[in-house]
Each structure stands twice: as C-alpha cells, then as structure tokens.
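Entry 14. Ran structure prediction on the chain below.
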Amino acid sequence: MTQSQHPPDGISQGALAGLVAEAVQQALIQRGIVLDPQTLVSASAIAGSLAAAVPFLPQEQRLAIGSFKGECTALASEFFQAMAELASGDFASADSSDESPTAASAAPSSPPRANDLQSVLIEDWAGEVAGSTYLEEHFRIPRSTLHRWQRRNEVIALRKGGRKHVFPLAQFIDGRPASGIPEVLSAFGNPRLAWFWLTRPSPELHDRIPIEVLKQDMVCDVVSAARRFSST
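Output, structure tokens:
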C-alpha cells in the first residue's frame, strides 16, 4: 500500500509518523536519555516512520511482524549498526544485519577464479552462512572472539553486500573453526577460493570433501592437498 492510503481514522502515514516521532522524542527526554539534538531527532523520526508504516501494511504482513516478539530489540540494534556502517564507510567485520543462515542452491561446476566467485551470490555456492549475531546466539561464539579469529585468519569470512561479512557454518566444530583453516587460507590467499575448494570433492583426497576431512583431524592431508591444488 502507498502513503496515500489511509487507516480507518483517515490520518495519513506521514502525519502518523510525525505524531509518533514527537511522542518518542518526548519519552526519551522525560526518561533522561542523553542524546545530542541531531541524534535525538533522527532516532525519533526513524521510530515514528517504522511505527506509522505498520497500519498501512496488509494484514498478513502485520501478523508476520507479531511473530518476531522478543527479537525486535535485537533487530533494531542490528538495523542501527547497519545504518552507522553505511554512514561512516568504516570497515566492520561481520556485523550489521546478521541473517539467519542462508543455504546454497547451485554451485559452479569447475574451479572458479576469485573474480568469478565475487560476482556470484554467496547463497548460490557457499552453503549455509550467517553473521556474528547468529553465531553468538546459536553457537555461543562471542563477537570479540569471532573478530579475533578473523584478524588472525583462523576463520573463513566471506564478504557480502559490500562491507559486511558472513561466515560459512560448516567450518565450525564444537564452537570453533576446524583446525587447518589458517594453513588452507594461506595456500589460496583468497577466502572465497579457499572455501570453494574446501566444500567440493577433491581428487587429492580421493574425492572426499576437504572440510569434512579437516573435521576428522586429518589436517596434514588437507593442507598438503590444498598446497598441491593451489600450486597448479
């Protein structure tokens, strides 16, 4: 529905947003929330716009919103984190709008170049991936730990949507990245190529899937195979 369509009392979406924004602003002030004036106005306006949009949604969408329940606070925090990253242009590893895992549908049939994988949607080749919020909530991996692993090349992080990173879930075992991932990353020098190789049957490993072999603690076999493959 568009902004010209009105709920039963006849108020427009824009007018309703203004009323809600004013109420939010007053509530923040009355509760002693200390914000600079520009941030106060912006936050109130966003809250007003979001709340005012709900009455104009189709019924099925309004019902879907209700299913989030307690997740709304976390979603709101992620929304503002994403806005801050876009506004500042700063690199943020694996934050922002953390998604629930997304799964692969089809994969390239031959070893690609890094540029080839860059142009293909992650969901189409990488398997299930998720961001830091999901990993913290479901795998109990603190964000600080995840970021430290990423800085040390101990975990594979795939860039998605510009500045955001997601993490393939298949690399984790008992809440940690599988052993040998740093060496595989070093052999390929590119996380996309490394993960593509790790998740496809490898002739060097008798057509076994390298990431599954890593999870069996056969690190030397996988690292040697990765080095042989990358050298060719």
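The chain has a mean pLDDT of 76. Will compare against last week's run tomorrow.
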